[in-house]
Amino acid sequence: MAYTQPVLGSTTLPHPSDYSERRAFRGAMAEMADGSVYFDVVNTNVKRQYTLTWKVVSDASKVLIETAYDALKVTSLSFTPPTGASAATVTRTDKEIEFTVVRAAAGLRWNAVMELREATNRFKKTLHEVALRAALPPELIEEIITLLKKIEEYL
User: Fold this and answer.
1) How far apart are CA 86 and CA 61, in angstroms?
2) How far apart are CA 152 and CA 133, in angstroms?
3) pTM of the full predicted structure?
4) Which of 74, 91, 144, 155 could pair covalently with 120 via S-S, beta carbons 3.0-4.6 A apart?
5) What value does the CA radius of gyration of the chain take, rounded to a whole number of Å?
């Protein structure tokens, strides 16, 4: 694979100093009293989590990183990793983006760490709406759809 500049949404990010990927299933695992293990997964497909680290970047690069991260506020975006692998749809993790100031020969610079996680399959809104509209009053349907959207954000 070729090394490329990462892209988040429509923002081309600076080249990271470090980059890592983790693969995991979403859900929970519990060990029972008899020693058996119980798995409860949201999705049977493995999902990736990406960590991008930048060291000694300029104010302009910091603004690019912030702009890309801010676009993830309540949505998902396409992410092309620096490995040149296929783009994935990602959301932010529960960790905030972290910037630390660094004194360099050229003045103050920034170190930054950003974590992204691959999004799970979204609910099929139209199917839910059709089923709900057939059985429930309209005001309750809207409340349920709002709750489903909130659940999507956490998956």
Assistant:
1) 24
2) 20
3) 0.69
4) 155
5) 20
